[in-house]
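Weekly modeling sync, notes
Attendees: S.R. (lead), two postdocs, one rotation student

Agenda item 3: backlog of single-chain predictions. S.R. asked that every request posted to the team notebook include the full sequence so nobody has to chase files. The rotation student volunteered to paste the first one in as an example of the format we agreed on. Action items at the bottom.

Example entry:
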Amino acid sequence: MKKIVHTSNAPNPVGAYSQAVRAGKFLFVSGQLGIDPKQGKITANNIIAQTNRALENIKVILEAEAYNLRDVVQSNVFLSSVELFSDFNCEYGKFFPKEPPARVTVGAMLGLGALVEISVIAYKE
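Predicted structure, as returned to the notebook:
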């Protein structure tokens, strides 16, 4: 059985997808851009700020189902340029200082002026 997850504390989806879907003990969080949920758009133009905002969006979606960043077991990261990796990785590491999740990071074309998109899978006993 699955449950669609939505919180007003994160940006509304900009397409035909849910913020997250809970399936049993797993929570699948859709790709989050650095969209400011209050303004409904990307307000930062650098990778550090956009990474921070995307992860804050993920954090509030997780919290909507009583999960947290420690429950994240996998993340998928898309960067508009692999040259952004070092600065991205530094900011990302602040959110996962101990026992970080498995991760895939690739270069990709992103919409809305995004420099980064991050999706995660969380698991909770």
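Discussion: group reviewed the output briefly. Strands lie at 2-5, 20-23, 26-32, 35-36, 41-42, 72-79, 102-107, 116-123.
Action items: rotation student to repeat for the remaining queue; S.R. to check formatting next week.
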